[in-house]
Each structure stands twice: as C-alpha cells, then as structure tokens.
Amino acid sequence: MELNENKRKLFITTLLLGTFTMSISQSSLSTAYPTFMNYFNLPASTISWLTTGFMLIMSVVMPLSPWLMNNFRFRPLYLSLLAIFFTGTLIIIFAPSFPIMMVGRLMEGFSVGILFPSYQSIILEITSHNQRGSVMGTVGLVMGSALATGPIISGVILQFFSWQAIFSLFLIILALVFLAALKTVPSPLEKKPSRFDFISVFLSLGIIGILYFINELPHMFITNYFNWGILVVSSILLYFFVYRQLNLSPPLLRLDILKITNFDLGVALTSLSYMSLITVTIIMPLYYQQILGLSPLWSGLSLVPAAAILSWLNRRSGLLADKIGFKSVIMIGFSLFIIGWGLLLAFTTLANIWLAIMCSIFIEAGNAFAMMPATTLGANSLTDELIPHGSSIIATFRQIMGSTAIVLATIILGEHNFKGVFLTFLILEIVALGLVFLIRDTKGSKVSS
Question: Between the CA of residue 128 and those of 8, 107, 132, what are the distances in Å?
Fold first, then answer.
C-alpha cells in the first residue's frame, strides 16, 4: 500500500505519540516507589517488581514481533496493543491489591514489548534509505525523551496528586491516540503468513530466566542455589532457542542476520549507547540526592537540561547522518559519552551541581548521536523483508543490556561508590568507540530473505 507524504507523516506521528506515552511507563515509576511502599505496605524489593516484571515480559515477547508483523495487518495489531495497554492501565488504577496491580503492569509490558520493534520496523520499511537517518532521529527523540522525562513527570505529578494520577495521564493520552489511530493508521505492508512455532516460544522463556538472574544479582548470595539453577536452565533453553532458529525454516527469529556486516555492529553499538542512557537517568538522581543533598523533586528537575538537549539533538543527528554518513556521526556520539563519563570521574569530589548537569548533557547528547544512528546503520544493511527481524533483535539485545547496566551500576555503587560507576561506563564507551572504527561505509553483504 502506497502512502502519500501527508498520510505517511500523520501515520508516523500517531505511532510515535502512542509509543512515547507507553515508553514513559517504563521509567516513570522509580520516583513513586516510596509512595507505593506506603500505600501497599510492602518493601522496596517487592515494589521493584513493577519495573522488573514489566521489563521481563517486554523482553520475552519482543522476538514474537516479526511473526506478528508477517501474519497480521498492522492497523488491527496496533489498535489491539493500545487496547491491551489501556486495559492494563485501568486495572492498575483501580487495583485493590499489589498482585492485581502486577497483572495490569504485565499487560502494559506485553504491549510495549510487541510495539517497540514493530513500530520501528514499519517506519523503516515505509521510509526511503536517504531519509532514514532523520526519521529515525525522530524515533530516537521519542524513545530517549520518554526514558529521560519519565522520572521527571512522575515526580512533578506526585508532588500534587496521588500515584493514580500518573496512570490516569497515560489513560487519557492513549484514549486520544486510539481515536487518532482509527483515522490515521493504515496497514501498509502485505501479510506473509507462516506457521507459529510454539517450541521456539517456549525456549525463548530462557530470556526471562536470564533477566531474572541478572536483576537478582545485587542481593543474591553465592549459596542461592535456586537462582543459580534458574541461570543454568535458562542458559540451556536459550542455547536450544538459538540452535532451533538457525536450523528451522522459517524460524521465528532470523538470528542468522547477526552475520551481516554492520548489522552486528549496529546491535552492539545501540546496546552500549542505551546502557549509558539508562544508567545516567538512574544514577544521577541518586548522585544529586546522596552527594549534593537535593530533594527528589529537584533531583528529577536537574535531569531536565540533559533531556532537553537529547530531544533537540536527536533529529539533527539523524539529518547529519544522512549527509555525512553514519560512521562519523556515531563516532561523535561515543566521543561525547567518553567526555561525559570522564569528566564525572575526574571531578566527582567537587560535588558541583552545574558540573554534574553539564556531564549529564554530554552523556545524553552522546546518545542522540549514537543510539538511533547505530540502529539505522544496522537496518540499512538488511533487506526490507528482514527489517522486522532486525528490529526485534536490536530491541531485545538493548533491553537485556539495559537491565544488565542497571544491575552493574547498582552493584558497583554499593555505599555511594559513584566514582566506580563512572569509571566502569567510561571503559565501556571507550571499547564502543573502538568498535565504531570497524564500521564499513558500504552496507555490507546481505542475507537473502
């Protein structure tokens, strides 16, 4: 189905508005943990499952995205995901107990997990190669801004209203998006029906086990045999999942595309970029509160300058990538990461809020020049038929590495060891910059569909 320019812009705008609203839910609850603890009379370790469970369900359903894209028309798929998220949010608002609230939260995670790779796939497929940088820059604006502004929005709302108001805001916006989608969202791609492989889906549950183990590491003892057992079983499941995808025709997920030049680097670089972004949005509020003595509200507001710069730069970095190439732009991004983490490491003891904000700006600006350009670099190395698989792989890896980054930062932080966190992520981004030099200016060889 051909879309004229006006319809394409309306389509993409509706997709991004829905995605922005659903993305905020991923990062907005950390500010509200003390409120939930008091409301449900539960410890922080239990309340944290509102985020952990959300991320686990997201990660396990992401590999289903290519099959859903090929077997269902996009319009009903998108409307269904909005409806599921809307229903889950409604359940959360009126939940009489924490377990009921978790049901709603898992429904939200399911919707976001399917939507993240799906909307990126369809935007890439309806956009010409010479415009993908700028369009994906807008996508990066949505994703990065949502992640960075989530804690800010929830902090401001909680200052004046109850926690239900956070979810009520999601509800109102999504209702408007649903109505807009009825008018603006078509099904521009042809269906390509294939058999649903239940065995692959079962084996993919290993992703949940791995993520569960990673999230339990900060408060796990070496003698916790249950968690180590989960790691072993999950690793076996994932081994057979990979083996099955490489030998099944057609597979649920085309893992063989990881052999493609530039796509493999795109996966690694977007993951390393996301690790820094999600870490800075979690570590810096703690730094502002524990080292600089700011209130939760002001620590959240201190993230605003970096979030604003990230939003402003995302589309501009995409336009720049279309003009000068992705390798140069990605190199700028990881150089900014190194400057930001390096300055934080060098001046930790100064405990100056303006210096800390400036360093956060460098790091989030680096993400603007790195994450979506790396994602687009990977997509451009694939044929259109493989883009749904590529988007799913990138989103899954990004989610796993994001969870790993949070746990890594938490373990290293311990009792206010911010310098150790800054050094660790400085080293990671130096390694990433080394990978940038391996990018080929050509698209590389392609695996046939």
Answer: 12, 34, 6
Residue-wise pLDDT for 352-379, tens only, equals 888 889 999 999 899 889 988 898 888 8
CA-to-CA dists, residue 219 to 215, 224, 414, angstroms: 9, 10, 11
**What distance lies between CA 63 and its chain's CA centroid?**
14
C-beta of residue 428 within 8 angstroms of C-beta of residue 276: yes
Preceding omega of 34 cis (within 30 degrees of 0): no
What token pair was written down for 401? Answer: 């590495």
The mean pLDDT value for 203-208 works out to: 88
CB 216 within 8 A of CB 191: no
User: Which of 6-10, 37-41, 91-95, 130-134 has the highest average model confidence (pLDDT)?
Assistant: 91-95
* Phi then psi dihedrals of residue 254, to 5 deg: -80, 80
d(CA 116, CA 246): 24
Q: What residues contact 123, with CB distance under 8 A and at least 6 apart?
A: 12, 15, 135, 136, 139
Angstrom distance (rounded) from CA 35 to CA 167: 14
pTM here is: 0.82
Residue 435 token pair: 């990978």
Q: Which residue has the tokens 């259109």?
A: 384
The two tokens of residue 95 are 């939940």
Side chain identity, residue 174 = L
Band (pLDDT 50/70/90 cuts) for residue 3 is: low
Residue 349 class from Cβ within 10 Å (0-12 exposed, 13-18 middle, 19+ buried)?
Answer: exposed
Q: What is the pLDDT of residues 253-285, one digit of tens each?
A: 899 999 888 899 999 999 999 999 888 877 887
Cβ(214)–Cβ(402) below 8 Å: no
Say whether 72 sits in a helix, a strand or coil.
coil
User: Is there a contact between 146 and 20 (Cβ–Cβ < 8 Å)?
Assistant: yes
